[in-house]
Amino acid sequence: MALYTDLSPDELAAAVRPFGLPAPERVRPELKGAVNTNFHLWAGGQRFFLRISEGKTEGDVRFEAEVQRYLHEARFPVPRLHFAADGRPFVPVAGKQAMLFAYAPGEEISRQDAGPERCRRVGEQLGRLHDLAAGFTASRENPYGLARVEGWIAPLRQEAEADAALAAALPLLEDELARAAHLPGAPQGLVHGDLFADNVLWIGDRVSAILDWEMSCVAPFAYDLAVALNAWCYTDRYEPARAAALVQGYRAKRRVEPETVDALHAWASYAALRFTASRIHAFHLAEVGADRLARKDWTRYRDRLVALRELGERGFLALLGPA
Questions:
Q1: What is the torsional sign of CA 77, 79, 83, 89?
Q2: Which tens digit of pLDDT belongs to each residue from 210-263?
Q3: In Å, how far are 175, 272, 273, 277 from 299, measured between CA atoms?
Q4: Are 230 and 271 in contact (CB under 8 A)?
Q5: In the chain, fewer beta carbons within 10 Å around the N or the C end?
């Protein structure tokens, strides 16, 4: 992900020492994304993934650790989290929390290569996650809820004065923000919140690991399902075969409540707004240089929001296949 915190070899050695590891023999920064600073590192003959949490509280990190612990014990495909010698799921590094994960084998696939069968597999894992949520007792509100999205959009009117693309999109974003004040309620529990193609690893056609649980929280299942549908089932339009396969996979592992179905279009629209706004904030207006941040195109999620409005609730639900 983005390289916000640049650590020297001595600082990296100090970061992994509390986990019982020697100084790393090799380190490679991971520049994709925008939320944290991450490193692949090799130490003691093993490969690990070190995450420096950017802008997180200790409570945020402990919640994510509880998610990882619970799902790992349930044999859900998550990377194993290592605990420090004092029992904490992190160590302090540069005034932030560093978490150490076992290396998760597997390969990413691009969204373009995610056909219906892989979408079905993703739906199965999401359905299983939401089924497991019944036994998860920790709680955390969505850190990317309405107030945060509003905070991203509010300054854009000034930015739009010198940015034609932002100026053209701003009325749509502001209108959707107003609609989001009346999102429907629906059954809720533990959600991933960011089930994008680059957060899923594959061995062949099998999901080998689901990564990046820092956005996990307790929220409507409709939100999580909508995020996945937006991420996996849209190319230059929503693909009916992919959407139907993802929902069929989900239904194979968990019953979908009528309230969740009724809420899907509204939450898909909110998810499109949320990721449009976060990408504008994190990539389009970022002050981090291109050598330290892999940028993502915010207009791709604006296009999803436009498509959702054109489809309407009935058209969107028709994509998902029969109940």
A1: negative
A2: 999 999 999 999 999 999 999 999 999 999 999 999 999 999 999 999 999 999
A3: 17, 10, 11, 10
A4: yes
A5: C
- pTM for this entry: 0.92
Same fold, 9-102 and 111-319: no
Distances (CA, A) of 213 to 111, 161, 209: 20, 36, 12
Q: Does the 9-102 domain belong in CATH 3.30.200.20?
A: yes
pLDDT band at 3 (very low <50, low <70, confident <90, very high): low
Fold observed for domain 111-319: Aminoglycoside 3'-phosphotransferase; Chain: A, domain 2 (3.90.1200)
The DSSP bridge pattern shows strands 96-102 and 91-93 to be: antiparallel
Q: Where are the domains of the chain?
A: 9-102, 111-319
DSSP 8-state class, residue 235: S
pLDDT band at 287 (very low <50, low <70, confident <90, very high): low
Could you please report the per-residue DSSP string of 103-161?
A: ----B---GGG--HHHHHHHHHHHHHHHHHGGG-------TTSHHHHHHHHTTHHHHGG
